[in-house]
Amino acid sequence: MSKSLSEMMQSWHLCPGSDSGAQIDALLAPLCARGVLPDGHESTSAILLGEQYHLGGAEDTRRMARLAGITAADRVVDLACYIGGPARQLARECQCEVVGVDISQVHIALAEKLTELVGLQERVTFMCESADALPLPGESFTVVWSQCPFPGDLSWLKETDRLLKPGGRLAFTGLIRRAACDDPALLSLDEISQKVEVMGFRVVGAEDISDMDLEHGWLPALAKLRANEAHYRELMGSDWVRKAGASIETDIMTWREARMGNGRVVAVKE
Ligand SMILES: C[S@@+](CC[C@H](N)C(=O)[O-])C[C@H]1O[C@@H](n2cnc3c(N)ncnc32)[C@H](O)[C@@H]1O
Description:
Blueprint: H1 3-10, H2 20-33, H3 44-49, H4 57-68, E1 75-79, H5 85-94, E2 97-102, H6 105-117, E3 124-128, E4 141-147, H7 157-163, E5 164-176, H8 189-198, E6 201-208, H9 210-227, H10 229-236, H11 238-256, E7 261-269
Parallel strand pairs: 1-2, 1-4, 2-3, 4-5
Antiparallel strand pairs: 5-7, 6-7
The structure holds S-adenosylmethionine.
């Protein structure tokens, strides 16, 4: 982590009583402008989506939590947690304990700081590790959670199986192959469900959420960009705004033409 980032974070604070999400977005904005987030790479969607870097944001997290039946009795590991937005939401809304895992030191440093700012550090902790090999004991979680386009071969699922207690749930969202998709590396939702079942899990929910992600993810992201062009021009520059608009419009087209999409699987370890 660069010294300037840790120095910047030292001066961060949140005003109690005001919308903490909006305040966090404001804290993150200069980091996006400097290319610190997401981890030095340009990502249109990350910059527009803010604290939760997946389509559908907090509402999508709430929906997956309901499908997975997460309660205060659960200990959840969030694989590829980014800066911890969903992890904090799960702890706040379901009262569960969450361990967030991400491979980026910058993301983990920000996740820890934001969690401390909202006072959830007792229940939400983070580890900078690769999700496919975690230095954690087997059967130490009741839920493995992820909202991330992980490698399509699902090789990371082996670690999920090791980490989950029997009866625990796996809940994840990722890219799927759809009717007009030409990426041979992607699996269809049925193929993903079969792979999960072969590992000894019972799939209790498998859904193509592409239409929902279009409506609650891509279209609002484009609307946010268009409604706040002056703000993003000042923050990111005119070139970024132009490229961001074109890139989201392309994504919307690939989603509409069923060339790309997202699926969700919830399964119980038998
Ligand atoms: C799309 S973001 C995840 C968004 C996050 N789940 C959320 O909903 O806010 C992808 C994240 O995966 C992380 N990542 C990539 N490869 C990883 C790995 N092997 N293990 C853990 N994290 C990884 C990246 O650092 C990045 O933060």
